[in-house]
Structures are given as C-alpha cells and as structure tokens.
Design goal:
four-stranded mixed beta sheet; 332 residues; alpha+beta; five-stranded antiparallel beta sheet; 10 helices; single chain
Length: 332
C-alpha cells in the first residue's frame, strides 16, 4: 500500500447504472450473448489469454499504442489466440505455410508477410473464425481502393470498420498476411484482381501503406487470423472525436481512493488488492482513463464488496474537491 500514499487520490464519476447492474449480480458476470460468444470462440480453437500473460500484455500494449492519443479512452476487454488445434484450423495453418513458402520462391526468398488488423461486426468475425473469409467488398469507410479484403498495418486506421455489438464491444483480428509483390491501387478503383501475374496484392501507398488489399482469390490462403482483440471505446470510434456525451449529474458522495482501497483490502484477497493497486498506478501514469479504471475496479472487487464498502460511509461524507472518487450514495 506504500505506493498509494495518503494524498494520492483519483477523480472519477460512476453512475448508479454503471456501478451496479442489479442487486444480485457481480460486475464480472457476462451477459448471455457474450457468454455464447466465448463458447463459439472456444469451439473453434480460440484460447482466451489471461491478463498478465506475456502474450496478452504484448498484444494489449501494441493495440493501445496503435490508438495513439485515444489509448487512454480504450479498454481491452479480452484477447483470444488462435491455437489452430481444430481440424479446420490445422488445415488453414498448413495451407498458409505452403502458400508462404511458394511466395518466397516466387519473390526471391521474401514472401513480404506482415501483421495487419481486420475489423468488422461480431457476426462476421465469428463467421471468419468458424468458416474463413467469404466475401470481398469495398471498404466500410473511406475511399475505395479496389474490391477485396481490407486490412490495416495500424489498428487505428481500421478501427471504424469494427462495429459495436449488443454488449458495447468491438472486435478486431490481428492477422498474418502474405503480401508478395504489391501494386498501388488508385482511389476510386473497382479493381478486384492483380493487373498481371507479377503482382499479388494491393496497397494505397507503396512507401507508407495504410491499407492492404487482398484479392478474393487469395483471401483464405494469404490471411491467417492469429489473435482476436475485443474492446470498448468512446464515441470517437463512431466519428465523434474523443468527446463523450455528458449526462446530467446526480447527487453523489465522495471518498478518497486511499480510503476506498483501505476498506476494500479488508474484503478482498491480497492478490486482488495488488491488482487494483497496479491499475491505479497505470491511471496515475496516464496509461488508462478514469473509465477504464472504474471498470477494472468493478471487475476485480465485484459489486457485493463495493456495496458493502459504501454502507460504511454515510451520506454526509465531506466533499474533498477535485481529486476524489465520486460514487452514488443511493440505490446501493
């Protein structure tokens, strides 16, 4: 607890609906559609990576880094790895390996494979994981650079193609992509295949591409989904910048984070208090936003513990100014 000094506090507002979904449910309990989604992923060889797993941390850090100035407003909810352990998964992996080797021979030893991001709706992501890519289209946003499967070197360039689902989540696949010899596709083009046998894929810019275009004939041989990132983000993902719509304020009581942490430590296992402390330090270093911190607090502590803590604090708690934790004082 030494790293959370007495004067170290945090400022955030939690609406009643966000703090407690119901009187008898924990924050970490997923809704039935989300649970079904996890089961479908598991059936198709997708393994959920736990937080603090090395691969989880690397993918999460890379994903947030790609979000640039918006990283603090984005919460990575889950990361799944494609284990390629199903019969279809093994076939796809072997097919990708064979085509990679063939491309290396064609291109003088370099298949020009890259990592790239693909975003879409949850239903399409599930279909791709279950059956592979099935359609080529124009991009979901921006100029058209041909008819194909669009992938993006940086996730923020393709994040608008990730459609929010019924749980408020968006989903992006991190894929390994065989590019081979690339050709520049002009904006407005409706090209759907290479212009000649020399070329294998398209880009919008040869020196600094922001889009990779994989033609339909190659979409299931030259693209291998490796990881799936499910995340929550603010309104900028819908084209509304990073500003989140404000809601009318409600009566609140305030409690210093230090005090909240001290009381929670009486209810929680030490491993959970250490994890809360870690996320608080991330917030202090501007690595995560207030929104992400409060979600993590709910997930780790659970609504039952938070409700018990609030009962210890009467409605007459002295307001302590800007650096405080704001919690509803009614409806607990």
């Amino acid at each position: 607890m030494e790293q959370l000094g007495v004067d170290e506090q945090v400022s955030m507002t939690i609406e009643k609906e966000e703090m407690l979904l119901s009187s008898n449910s924990e924050a970490e309990s997923p809704s039935p559609p989300f649970d079904d989604y996890f089961r479908l992923l598991k059936r198709n060889g997708m393994i959920k990576l736990e937080e603090r797993d090395k691969k989880h941390d690397i993918i999460e850090a890379g994903f947030l880094s790609g979000m640039g100035q918006f990283a603090k407003e984005v919460e990575v909810v889950s990361i799944h790895k494609n284990s390629c352990t199903t019969i279809l998964g093994q076939a796809r992996l072997e097919g990708f390996r064979i085509h990679s080797e063939a491309m290396r021979k064609k291109c003088g030893g370099n298949d020009n494979s890259k990592y790239a991001w693909f975003g879409s709706s949850k239903d399409e992501i599930c279909n791709i994981i279950s059956h592979g890519f099935s359609t080529t289209t124009e991009p979901k946003f921006g100029d058209c650079f041909g008819i194909g499967v669009y992938l993006y070197p940086t996730n923020i360039d393709g994040v608008l193609s990730a459609v929010e689902d019924e749980n408020g989540l968006r989903h992006m696949l991190l894929c390994r992509v065989i590019l081979g010899n690339t050709e520049v596709i002009e904006a407005g083009s409706t090209q759907f295949q290479p212009t000649c046998e020399y070329f294998d894929s398209g880009v919008d810019n040869l020196l600094a591409p922001k889009r990779y275009i994989i033609w339909g004939s190659y979409m299931n041989s030259h693209i291998l989904p490796n990881f799936l990132v499910s995340f929550k983000g603010p309104n900028f993902l819908l084209g509304n910048s990073s500003k989140i719509k404000k809601v009318p304020s409600k009566p609140t009581s305030r409690i210093k984070f230090h005090d909240l942490f001290r009381v929670l430590s009486k209810f929680l296992h030490p491993s959970r208090t250490v994890l809360i402390s870690k996320y608080y330090e991330d917030f202090q270093r501007n690595k995560i936003s207030k929104l992400v911190l409060v979600r993590k607090l709910r997930q780790i502590a659970g609504d039952t513990s938070l409700r018990a803590v609030m009962k210890l604090y009467p409605n007459t708690i002295k307001q302590i100014g800007e650096k405080s934790l704001l919690l509803p004082h009614k409806g607990m």
